[in-house]
Design brief:
oxidoreductase; Sc_DH/Rdtase_CS; SDR_fam; 15-hydroxyprostaglandin dehydrogenase (NAD+) activity; Rossmann fold; alpha/beta; single chain; 46% helix; 15-hydroxyicosatetraenoate dehydrogenase activity
């Protein structure tokens, strides 16, 4: 899949993995609409990426993934500023396990479902679309349980199963839509930095041990795995794991 004529919408793109995904797409010729609920961070990232890749290659929209109308606005904004969207990246996520645990479900699970639903409506050929690829960002925590994040783990497991169900759905496949899952281990993001503090998780001492044992990936390495899922048109309904110590590899639930 050539990215020269591609346009992507990325949630949670102001920093961390979302920004790394935007950068690798831009480097390979795509245009990108960054969306993030944090307007200050998003605008800063927009300024930096526009300076590196061109004002006409990237745009920003403040967006809340808990609101389906914001996804609709993202698609219409991207189309008017950059062109028709054919890549959707549901990346926004959080990991609160305690006082705001419901936000973890609202953002991680419901946000991914809403983003996928809107993208499917835009991409499906039987609804006037031209096909496309949806990348839903889960985590190895959705495959390997641990005591530090039961809500987070459950949310990422839900993303994986939701994506697998749609990935094998003939309504998606026959209408030119691929759906893949990226499942990274720890990466150099603000969320992972917060694990060492441990205010929002259970058993922070175990989280620290896991970080030391598993290792922490540069976000650029996760972005390389992400790019493979986007550009390799043979990949549909795939789950790609990537970690510092084990590298990358495909996982099957069968």
């Amino acid at each position: 899949m050539s990215l020269a004529q591609s346009v992507a919408v990325i949630t949670g793109a102001g920093q961390g993995l979302g920004r790394a995904f935007a950068e690798i797409l831009l480097k390979n010729g795509a245009k990108v609409l960054l969306t993030d609920i944090n307007e200050t961070v998003g605008q800063k990232t927009l300024s930096e990426l526009a300076a590196s890749h061109g004002q006409d290659k990237v745009a920003f929209l403040k967006s809340d993934v808990t609101k389906e109308t914001d996804f609709q606005s993202a698609f219409s904004t991207a189309k008017s500023k950059l062109g028709a969207v054919n890549i959707m990246v549901n990346n926004a996520g959080t990991g609160n396990e305690k006082d705001a645990w419901e936000s973890t479900i609202d953002i991680n699970v419901k946000g991914t479902i809403k983003g996928t639903k809107v993208a499917l409506d835009h991409f499906r050929k039987d609804k006037g679309g031209n096909g496309g690829v949806i990348i839903n960002v889960a985590s190895i925590a959705g495959l390997n349980p641990n005591p530090c994040g039961p809500v987070y783990g459950a949310s990422k497991a839900a993303i994986i199963m939701f994506s697998q169900c749609w990935g094998m759905n003939t309504d998606a496949v026959s209408n030119g839509v691929r759906i893949n899952v990226l499942a990274p281990a720890f990466a150099e993001t603000e969320m992972v930095k917060a694990l060492r503090v441990g205010k929002e998780i259970h058993k922070p001492e175990i989280a620290t041990q896991m970080l030391d044992q598993v290792g922490v990936l540069p976000v650029e390495k996760v972005a390389e795995a992400f790019l493979e899922l986007v550009t390799d048109t043979s990949k549909n309904n795939a789950i790609l794991k990537v970690s510092a110590h084990m590298g990358k590899g495909y996982h099957s639930l069968k």
